[in-house]
């Protein structure tokens, strides 16, 4: 009776965590899509796709778990074991990839952002405003790699010697801002590197811990399902 009650509770947990898992998967996929200029490797979004696949499988798994807690059938119990094993493989793979990609990508992030800033072609009088750097700076509300002073060391500044930064560094509330360094209060103070690292760590660690917690719940559900199957005659377990 206690095992059935606990299994029913885990079934509802699976339904709830399916939403959290799907959110984490979409978060990772959109992050690498929105900042594809910085994260150029397409395989980096793989943990997100694995998390989405796990979220979809969690829905029928939760239904089977609740159903078995009410009345046990051999084919349902066998199917649940297979689904739990598949989910466990997906969760562990997603967690391992998220942890690995997080540290490997973070070490290359500064050089990638610095390269985009250095090769950005702009002038004070004519700011294109649609390059990869401009998109990143507007979306993250940041300026430069570490701060706006990074723009003073770019190839464009050394050629034109401008006393300004790209207009994408301007705060939204200052509509008349043109990136003039004489009005620093109108510019974003924080660099893009720190904000990108923050989003990367949040998305990957969210996936990692979500997968670890779900793996524990899945192992517990498998043990409880095995306990319930022990009370059935052996000849009825041929479905396994």
TrEMBL record:
Main localisation: membrane
InterPro entries: Tetraspanin/Peripherin (IPR018499), Tetraspanin_EC2_sf (IPR008952)
Topological relation to the membrane, as annotated: Multi-pass membrane protein
Subcellular location: Membrane
Transmembrane helix among keywords: yes
SUPFAM superfamilies linked to this entry: Tetraspanin
Keyword entries, A-Z: Membrane, Transmembrane, Transmembrane helix
Regions that span the bilayer: 12-32, 44-68, 80-103, 203-228
GO CC entries: plasma membrane
PANTHER family: TETRASPANIN
Protein name: TSN3 protein
Organism of this sequence: Aegithalos caudatus
Gene that encodes the chain: Tspan3_1
């Amino acid at each position: 009776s206690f095992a059935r009650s606990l299994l029913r509770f885990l079934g509802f947990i699976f339904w709830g965590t399916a939403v959290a898992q799907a959110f984490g998967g979409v978060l990772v996929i959109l992050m690498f899509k929105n900042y594809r200029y910085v994260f150029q490797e397409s395989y980096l979004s793989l943990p997100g796709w694995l998390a989405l696949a796990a979220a979809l499988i969690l829905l029928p798994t939760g239904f089977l778990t609740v159903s078995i807690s009410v009345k046990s059938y051999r084919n349902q119990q066998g199917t649940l074991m297979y689904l739990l094993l598949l989910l466990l493989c997906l969760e562990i793979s997603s967690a391992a990839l998220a942890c690995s990609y997080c540290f490997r990508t973070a070490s290359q992030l500064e050089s990638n952002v610095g390269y985009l800033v250095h090769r950005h072609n702009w002038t004070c009088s004519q700011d294109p405003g649609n390059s990869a750097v401009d998109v990143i700076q507007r979306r993250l509300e940041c300026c430069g790699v570490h701060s706006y002073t990074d723009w003073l060391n770019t190839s464009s500044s050394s050629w034109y010697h401008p006393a300004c930064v790209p207009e994408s560094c301007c705060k939204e509330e200052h509509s008349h801002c043109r990136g003039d360094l004489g009005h620093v209060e109108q510019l974003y103070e924080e660099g893009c590197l720190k904000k990108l690292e923050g989003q990367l760590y949040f998305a990957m660690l969210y996936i990692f811990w979500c997968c670890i917690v779900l793996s524990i719940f899945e192992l517990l559900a498998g043990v409880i399902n095995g306990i319930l199957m022990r009370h059935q005659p052996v000849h009825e377990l041929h479905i396994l």
